[in-house]
Design goal:
mainly alpha; 9 helices; 77% helix; 0% strand
């Protein structure tokens, strides 16, 4: 019954699906699931690695980050310096968790990924809010459905999703309330740091602030 399922899930949340597939399909299916999970994690981490490298490249080219991060490889044309820096930072985090004898899945993977997941939700929410704000300030030929209804609906749904994630964060992390508070607070803390950096750039490096996110031919040198 439902009570037995809930008890089994609470007793072994990590191995629940593997146990079920072993029982009803076979051990080979559980092994295959392990393989797919590992390869999917590698693929997702590689995608994030590449995306962060290109963000670092763009920010370095615009003068927000150190110019060295904007160097590209002479042969492969990849932002290799940004990649090296990110790899070193990632290694430091992994070594720190290893030194603390943390569980590689229940602590390292889940705890590190949780702030990123919340950050992506918040980023999508901000974009949804930005859409109607932008179209109110410019003349356009777009319809109300695309410029108001869809983004407002998306913002409401995303805000609801963020609320559900935060209120049930323990289901994602399996951590204490203190750890969960830190993980949840990481996204707004980074946002505040970004606002402070933008304010500093506007006051001290106005040319960088004005050119930020501008089209290549509109960048102010």
């Amino acid at each position: 019954g439902n009570a037995e399922v809930l008890a089994a899930a609470a007793k072994d949340p990590v191995g629940l699906f593997f146990s079920a597939i072993t029982t009803y399909v076979g051990g080979w299916a559980a092994d295959l699931m392990h393989l797919f999970i590992v390869t999917s994690v590698i693929a997702s981490l590689l995608a994030f690695h590449n995306a962060i490298n290109r963000y670092a490249l763009a920010l370095a080219e615009e003068g927000v980050l150190p110019r060295a991060l904007g160097r590209v490889h002479p042969r492969h044309r990849s932002p290799y310096v940004a990649g090296i820096v990110q790899t070193v930072l990632g290694a430091v985090v992994v070594v720190a968790f290893w030194a603390a004898h943390a569980d590689p899945y229940q602590q390292l993977l889940l705890w590190v990924n949780t702030p990123g997941m919340i950050g992506l939700f918040v980023l999508q929410l901000l974009v949804a809010i930005a859409v109607p704000c932008y179209f109110r300030r410019v003349s356009h030929q777009e319809g109300v459905l695309r410029t108001v209804v869809a983004p407002v609906l998306a913002a409401v749904l995303l805000a609801t999703a963020i609320g559900l994630v935060i209120t049930h964060i323990d289901l994602f992390t399996g951590a204490s309330s203190t750890v969960n508070t830190v993980l949840i607070g990481t996204a707004p803390a980074v946002f505040v740091v970004g606002l402070v950096l933008a304010w500093w750039l506007r006051r001290r490096r106005a040319h960088v602030y004005v050119a930020f996110a501008a089209e290549p031919d509109a960048v102010v040198e």
